[in-house]
Each structure stands twice: as C-alpha cells, then as structure tokens.
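During the no-cost extension, the postdoctoral fellow (Dr. R.K.) reprocessed legacy sequence entries with the updated structure-token encoder. One reprocessed record is reproduced below for audit purposes.
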Amino acid sequence: MELQALPSRIGQVRRIVSAQLRYWHLDPLIDRAALGVTELLTNVHRHAQPDKQCTVKIELLLDRLTVSVHDHDPRLPVVREADPGSTCGRGLAMVAAVSESWGVQPDGESGKVVWFTLPASSPAVTAALRSPYEIACEATLRHTVDVRRPEHAPARSAVAG
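Re-encoded structure tokens follow.
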C-alpha cells in the first residue's frame, strides 16, 4: 500500500497489517508486526527526504512473514545507542529485538527498502497454515489402530447397546 507517512496514516497501516494477519490466521505475529511497521513508518515520517511518500508490503512465503517499507530517501538508517533519558532513537533497535532478522536494501537513487522478518512457524501459526488435506491426513492417522498390537486395539464396551 502506498501512503504518506503521517502520524494518522501510521495508525491506519498498523490496523490494516493487523487485519491482514488475522485474515491469514497469524494472530501470534500481530503485536510484533504492528510494532515493527510502526517503527519503520515513524522513521520515514521523521527522517525521509525529499518527501514522506512510501510503500508498505507484507509477504507470507512458506514459514516467514516479511514486512517492508520503501521510501524515496537514499540515505541508509543507522542503529544508534540511545541515551537513557531520550524519548527517541530506539526504533531500529526495537525492530531488531522483536524480529527474526531485519535489513536495508538500497534502491539506487530512488530510495531504499527497510524490512524485517518474523518466523511464521510457531505451533499456533503452523496449525493455521496447514491445508485441509494435511489436517484430514493427520486426523486419519490419529484414528488409525494397529490391530496387530493389542495395546493399540480400540476399547470395547461390555454394556449392550
């Protein structure tokens, strides 16, 4: 999605990203993805020149979610050590802390792309990503009994009926 990185739009993008992750059944990733995209968009708002125009992309490939922000400023961001009393300067450090990996890809004179990844392979996420066929196969295997091994034989009721 393309937007101006203004404070009011940053909140809208955070809600859109959260809704998309809910749609993909990736609820365990919502908080970290929302924090990461908020920090990247805040950096565009605070630092990007000549304008605040940017593009946000979210991609889910296999077991990895990638969130990226492309802006028109070719200057690369730098992770800084923030002063303890400072109210800014921790954005990229927070992105690094909540993500699996992050980085910057220069895009020539047209700017850069700052991205981060989150693993989409936790048990809850993996369960949400399984196909109906995989779920059906697993259910079938759970209910398969090896009749050659009596300890796995189904229990029989002695009650008539």
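Residues 30-47 form the longest helix (18 residues). The chain has five helices and five strands. The remaining legacy entries will be reprocessed before the final report is submitted.
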